[in-house]
Structures are given as structure tokens and as C-alpha cells.
Predict the structure.
Amino acid sequence: MATTTGPTPWRLAGVWWLALTAVAIAVFALLPYTAQSLGDLAAADNELAANYADRPAWLRLCLYAHMTGGGLALLLSPIQLSTRIRARTPRLHRSAGRAVLVAIAVGALTGLVLAPHNLAGPVGTAGFGLLALLWLTFAALGLRAIRRGAVTTHRRWMLRAFALTYAAVTLRLWLVALVPLTGDFPSAYRIVPFLAWVPNLVVVELLLRERPTAQPSR
């Protein structure tokens, strides 16, 4: 019988960091948009809200749908990716997984619509547009894999999808660092369209190479 070891303290700390920051951003980043209108937020110097406050109603609806889909995917991903939950309560894992896939579909499709209207200009259109396209693709490949019974392949695609879901967190972390360096929000925002998600995906790919397809214990 193969022996197993628990996660290292560093890996465990990393898992908790990902889970807690995902939940925090999913909840607290959306609160202002549920409590105030875009016009009120724009008047309070929220530059992202100001970019959409005077847009057509359908585009503002896409913004809210994008934030809701992305926030729900971010909130539920720690449940969907938890090894313990998957082993002990597979029904909860499947339910969370279905909700995550629907949330990603909503967030990604509306993200594609929003990309040409972003604050970062052509770089933002390319960066956020590619993010949305890959996010949707990875989730679809994960769904296809599990429908075929390819569990390990499904997990690998969903880890890649989570790397892109987590862009909502890394984008904000980069802005915290870049706004003081660049001097204003628009300048910082023009830097993050690729920076928010490409490093995440690189890290996940390195981890997947480090841990190839697992062999069952005997």
C-alpha cells in the first residue's frame, strides 16, 4: 500500500490564503455595487463605476452580471476545489461545481462584451478579452472531461479555470501596489489587463508539471 503524507505547512498556508482572499474579494468587492448606484459611486470617485455610469442600460446590466458571475465563481471555488469536500461530500462538490460552471459562463460571456469598453484601452480589450475567452474555454473543457469520466483531466482544467477566476483577486492586489507607483488609478489600470491573470496561469501550469497525473494507491 502506498503511503501518503499530508500537505506541507507552506502548501497549507497557501491553500488558506487562496480560500480566504477569494471569499473576501467575492464579498467585499461587490458590496459597494449592491449598496449604491453607479452614479453615486462615480460621484464618490470610483473610476470604474464612472466608466459605466452613463453607458447604455444593457451594458450596465452586463457589468452587474459580470460582477455577480465572477463573484459567485470566486466564492464557490474553494468548495469546488477542496479535496476534503470532494472525498467526504461528493454531492456538495458536484453542486458547487455546477454552480461554478454557470457562474463562469455568465462572467466570461459578459466579460467579452465589456472588454471593448474597459478603462485600459486596446491593451485592456486584448487582455481582458483573452482572459474571458480562456476562462470560458477552460471551464468548458473541464465540463467535457468530467462528462467523459476523465476525473484527473477535469481537475486539471478546473485548476486552470480557477487561476483565471482568481484574477479578480490578483488584479486588486496589483492595483494596491501600482497606484502609488504610477500616481493614479487609470495609469495603474492600464498595466493590469495581462498582469492580473498570466502569472496565475503560469504558477498553475508549473504546479501541474510538478504533480503529474496521480496514480491510484494499491
